[in-house]
Write a structure and sequence with these properties.
It is a single chain. The chain is mainly beta. The protein is 0% helix and 50% strand. Strands 2, 4, 5, 6, 9, 10 and 11 form a 7-stranded mixed β-sheet that branches. A 4-stranded antiparallel β-sheet has the order 1-3-8-7, with no helix packed on it. A hairpin with a 5-residue loop joins strand 5 and strand 6. It is globular and about 40 Å long.
């Protein structure tokens, strides 16, 4: 069964950091276009970042300079490093394997004092 398993969410104060993980189970996330998305309460799911097989990355404007997406091929895992977190970053974060449109289960990130 093809799955993406996310982890790393939690409650953090404004200005804090979190690292989310997205592990491939039963399939590879290497040499694939992988994306991160998020969905805040009452809002539509929005794209956050894309990681291409060659290492190129793209980010939505609101997270540029604060978030970094990366991949560890040996661990078959993609990461989203989030720094300088703001309350408006509060959302459920999802990863997706672009080619197969496989989604992870989501992990909650709450930024609050």
């Amino acid at each position: 069964q093809v799955q993406l398993v996310e982890s790393g969410g939690g409650l953090v104060q404004p200005g804090g950091s979190l690292r989310l993980s997205c592990a491939g189970a039963g399939h590879s996330v290497s040499d694939e276009i992988m994306t991160w998305h998020r969905q805040a309460p009452g809002k539509a799911r929005e794209w956050v970042a894309t990681l291409f097989p060659g290492g190129a990355t793209f980010y939505t404007d609101s997270v540029k300079g604060r978030f970094t997406v990366s991949r560890d091929e040996a661990k078959n895992t993609m990461y989203l490093e989030m720094n300088s977190l703001k309350p408006e970053d509060t959302a459920v974060y999802y990863c997706q394997k672009h080619r197969t449109k496989t989604w992870g289960q989501g992990t909650q990130v709450t930024v609050s004092s």
